[in-house]
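USER:
Try writing one entry.

ASSISTANT:
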Amino acid sequence: METIKEPMLEYGLAKHAHVGGGESGDLHVVCCNQNGMMIAVIDGIGHGEEAAEAARTAGALLQSSMDEPVISLMERCHEKLRGTRGAVLSMAFISPEQKMMTWIGVGNVQGVLVRANGVRGNAQEPLLLRAGVVGSILPALQASVLPVSRGDTVFFATDGIQTDFSTSLSGRENPQKAADRILSHYRSGNDDALVLVARLTGINP
């Protein structure tokens, strides 16, 4: 797959559907407007068409309402997914003007921010995940807010990727090559797998 360039970011995507499961239940969202960038990864519970449908439902809501606060978006996804298999979901909204990222996760879609300049703080910032299933059991929600800079990179990976993938991350690797490498080296083989790597290129120094 080629790296897809948006006005304010560059991202790479790699995914694999579980053998015998049919359509993947893992889905990504990347969208930009004049206010900022929304990136998210959704993992519909289980495999196959019902998992994929739950992921698509949440993804469509995120794309159509990306300017809403991430906690409100998570709550709306929860209501929208009632009666479906549900999903686990991690998402981030980046404001280039404020140079801030607000992100939140329910379930086990891992998120890591890798800073372009680790000298200015922690080189890696993991996303705090809260246990639950969007559409079924929603925990108390609290978003994290972090300063971001040009060249910082956000990594999201579903549970088809082994958790130790974060030990291999670099803020300089091409996003598509990084996504392909993580999928190749860390795919567990027992679930759908998706890796999204997004580098923030539209933030003024």
